[in-house]
Amino acid sequence: MDISLLADHPNEVSKIASWYYNEWAHSIPNVTEAMIHEDVIAKSINRDKVPLSIIIHDENELVGVTELKYHENKSYPEYEHWLGGVFVEPSKRGYGVSSLLISEAKKRAVKLGVTRLYLQCESHNLSIYKKHDFEELHQAVHHGISTVIMVWVPAT
Fold it and tell me: Per the confidence metrics, is the pTM higher than 0.85?
C-alpha cells in the first residue's frame, strides 16, 4: 500500500468527494456534492500545513483517505486541529487501511506542531481510535448525529 498526499494526486478529488457525500453529507440539509467537492479541493493543495488530505492506494487504486483540518465541529471553537474524513472503500475494510491512515495522520500532525488532535466519531467507531491512543472527552451532536469527541495528545 502506498500512502501519499492528495496534493500529489489531484485527479482523486472527485472520487473522494463522492465517497464523502454518499457516506455522510447526503443527509445534511442544503449540502450538495458540489459543495463537498470544493471542500475536498481545499484540502488537496497543501503538503506541509493544515488543512491537508492523506490518501492510500493499493496497486494504484485509491482505497482510503483522511484529513487533518481545522475546527471540524463549530460548536467547539477551542478545539483547533482535527482528524476527520477517515474513509476506506467498503471492499477494502478490515485490512488495516484505516489504521495506516490514522498512524500517518498522527505522524504528520506531530511534524506540523499539533499539540492536541481532536476527532468526532459515532460510538461504533470508538475502538479503532482508542487503539490509536485517542481518549474520549464527551458526547456531542454534529449535523443532528450523536457523536463522541476524542483527543490525542502526542508524547512530549
Answer: yes
